[in-house]
Amino acid sequence: MIGIIGAMALEIDGLKKEMENTSANTISGVEFSVGVIGGTEVVIAQAGVGKVNAAVTAQTMILKYNPSVIINIGVAGGIEPSLKIGDIVVADKVCEHDMDTTAVGDEPGFITGIDTVYMHCDSEISNIISVCAKDMGLHTVRGTIATGDIFVAENSVRNRISQLFNGVAAEMEGGSIGHVCVMNNVPFAILRAMSDCANDDSKVDFPVFAAKAAENSIKIILRFLNTYKG
User: Fold this and answer.
1) Which of 78, 105, 125, 193 is the 20 to 30 Å CA partner of 213?
2) 3-state secondary structure at position 192
3) Are 97 and 161 in contact (CB under 8 A)?
4) Do 110 and 125 form a contact (C-beta atoms < 8 A)?
5) pTM
6) Angle at the Cα of 129 (from 131 to 191), degrees rounded to 5?
7) CA nearest 21: which of 35, 5, 10?
8) Residue ranges of the alpha helices (H) in 1-154?
9) Which residues are catalytic?
10) Whether 214 contacts 14, CB under 8 Å
11) Residue 7: how many CB atoms within 10 A of its CB?
């Protein structure tokens, strides 16, 4: 079974419409929909926005459904210069850019307990997703996706994420899902379509382009589910 998590309805509803043999279960206020897409059994959840919502959803999904891999899909703000609205980022690794214990000597983003800044995505799954995106003619970038409990809409925050973490995109859930997966030894991947450019224009661009960008991530995952036979 493959687990798929999105934060908002627009990031997963198009995917849920493709499910067959569906059933649903609500746990901690999160609906988990189980079914089949392209012959692959999936469980899909809308976590809600932010790191805690995403972490609760990922942990519950692991304990209840034992997925072989969790894929986080949705939209993000692009930071890498070549990225435009609608383009794709497939993460090689994720970090939590708002984690800060530098006052006690740690490097920015260091996560005590798993004792790292970067959490690495499953290379096989990420490579397949990337190929699916490129085969669809979508400009696709690989790199670090940076997560924090802030909607990045200022150039100063964008520049900090780029300089400190070499982040190519910023969003609000992937790093915490990766954090939970690392703690549970569950492979994970992060796919994001760009809804904005994580800059001073983002508060205007996001409402206009988020739904269309989310369609791209859904189309890629549908292609993936019809390709992956793991």
Assistant:
1) 125
2) strand
3) yes
4) no
5) 0.95
6) 130
7) 35
8) 9-16, 51-65, 123-135
9) 11, 196
10) yes
11) 25
pLDDT at 230 > cutoff 80: no
Cβ–Cβ < 8 Å for 215, 14 = yes
Rounded CA separation 138/144 (Å): 19
Non-local (6+) Cβ contacts of 5 within 8 A are: 44, 45, 46, 47, 54, 57, 58, 61, 70, 71, 72, 73, 173, 177
Q: What is the mean pLDDT of the chain?
A: 95
Average pLDDT over residues 62-77: 97
Residue labelled with tokens 């000597």: 105
Q: Residue 122's pLDDT is what? A: 98
With bands split at pLDDT 50, 70 and 90, how would you rate the model's confidence at 100? Answer: very high
Give the residue among 88, 213, 200 at the shortest CA–CA distance from 153. 200
Paired tokens of 10:
């627009």
d(CA 188, CA 121): 5
Single-letter code of the amino acid located at 189: A
